[in-house]
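Hi,

I'm pasting everything inline rather than attaching a file, because the server keeps stripping attachments. The sequence lines come first, and each chain or strand is labelled.
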Amino acid sequence: MKVLELKNVNKIYNSTEVKVHAVNDVTMDFVEAEFAAIVGPSGSGKTTLLNLIGGLDMPTSGEIIIGGTNLSKLKPSQLIDFRLNNIGFVFQSYNLIPVLTAKENVEFIMTLQKWPEKERDERTFELLWAVGLGDRINSRPTKLSGGQQQRVAVARALASKPKFILADEPTANLDSKAATTLLEIMEKLNHESKITFIFSTHDPRVVKMAHRVITLEDGKVISDDIRELPA
Amino acid sequence: MIWSIAWKNVWRNKKRSLVVIVAVTLGIISGVLLVGIMEGWVKQRLNDAIYNEVSHIQIHNSEFIKNEEIDLTVRNLAEITRSIDSLQEVSGWVKRTKIIAMANTSWANTGVIIYGVDPEKEKQVTEICKKIVQDGGKYLDVQSPGDIMISDKTAEILKLKQYIITDSIIAKLRAEKVTVNVLTKLETLKDMRFRSPKDFREALRKEFSKKELDRFGLFITDKALDYRIRNKVQITTSDMEGTPIQGIFRVCGIYKTTNTGFDQVSVFINTRELANLYGGNDILTHEIAILLNNIDDAGIVKEKLSRISGDNSVMTWKELAPDAAMMNDFMVMYYFIFIGIIMLALAFGIINTMLMAILERTKELGMLMAIGMNRKRIFKMIMLETIFLTIVGAVAGMLSGWAITEVLGKTGIHFTGWGEGFEAIGFAARVYPILTPQFFIFITIMVILTAIISSIWPARKALKLNPVEALRTE
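And the predicted assembly:
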């Protein structure tokens, strides 16, 4: 089942001196339970593409359709609510709320979705145990390692039961061991929850584990290698 | 949860938040204290104006208001007094004779207004009987003919107030542990008579060092003060035909209110004694002063009495003491102006702090927007942070201000150096700050308004952030 469709998506930045074609006529689909990596050299348009898919930026032309909804048709306020209910985000520098504990960070997004407290608590515990932090639920981000913080961020991204998760270089700030642990957890969650994960990455470990590798260069898709379709 | 995040965010940068909280606290304390002092002064002035000077209502012959001639007495007196007696709102009333005269002693003279009063009845309406100064004789007594009660200020003008250092005063000062050095210096001033406080202070200044004056000056001045009780005062006025008349009275007591202007001209004589002076068969009534149970009834009572008073003029305290009335009415505006200025200054501090906080948290705010926190919630969070920051300081300020005002309300604040100046315009040199519940309601509303208004700019700034750009910041 398609969760995401991109049709002739272009993103052009017009500065006073140069015109930058950051994303160039990208057309592709993502289906449920994919574990996809978008790779390419710096400046190839990975992050821009992720921002477009995540509804954080609007394409200059083309359509992005998520679960049948064309993002270009949404008003800014509708787009925020759409992101809340359909897209999970994992950022390179974790971006947890420092004044909240791991538990509060995860349940925060469900609070925004107005989940009942009991269900919220259950899902928070379930997710934190799933990312291996069941014993650190009351720790603040400053008391957690980078790898642990990123795992909390993954739990937070999953909390809202999104259609897919966008992870922008999630292992870039982690050491090898923490990165491997994180990737294993993400792959396991992808397998169990059937939620699509889309990474932008330079990390060969991510590329190695991905089921699908999309290579960008100068904003264009130069290869789309589907290694293994999700079961 | 937004409430919880907002509260926790306040304490994220403790030092910075505490600076703002302390600023708000100090601002509120100063506001509470200064309004308390002002309120204390206004209430004291109002109280003194009513209970020492004008009462709640006065009735005069309407011509007497313009020209205080002896023959312009209150008309229809019997009917008016009957009406006053029938009014439930009235707590007490008196009739007075009021004559302009010249008072002379062997050393000086001054113009005065003589109030011919019934000393006992007067106690129902005014508190002058309680204003007799220490060692200043006694209040008027119907049993003592020929007495006159004058003020401390009139005594000073008529040179009936003197400062003198005697052996007995030196002995008293020694008992009060005044240093030997000071007592030795005082010997040089012994038995010298100073007729004004200014001259006495000048003499002390020549003899003593500044430190000695600061420590003992007021104390010595207080002990050396001596009123010439039972001294003769000659009163010169004119009778009903305009013929000059004179009478000799003896000072029985010295009073002092907080209004030097009133004190300077007001002297009191038993109404019967005064009648003997102007030679009338009847006691003249130029003024009826009425005290009510409730100050708010002044307008109603005035209306009732005006209906039957004919040519007489019925005036409330607001017309009789417009300064006190103006101050009383001005208080609300004073609250607005004074607290408004404090709040404006605080608002800039709060806005600055919150803008800094937004700047520091740009990336986090970008993340919140990205994951789906809508504009309404972002606005609410920033607004709550600002309100919490302000309210913490405001509560601390209000509690501290209230505690300080409670203590000072009991001890009073004595503005020693400016006492004469304050009393010249009717304000006491010692003020007892007062705070009313209305003021606390007012300041709470002002604080909340300030917090809300201060939060708008930072919150709008946060809303203008672009999540993609915000996430890129370091």
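The CA atoms of residues 51 and 57 of chain A lie 6 Å apart.

If the labels don't parse on your end, tell me and I'll reformat.
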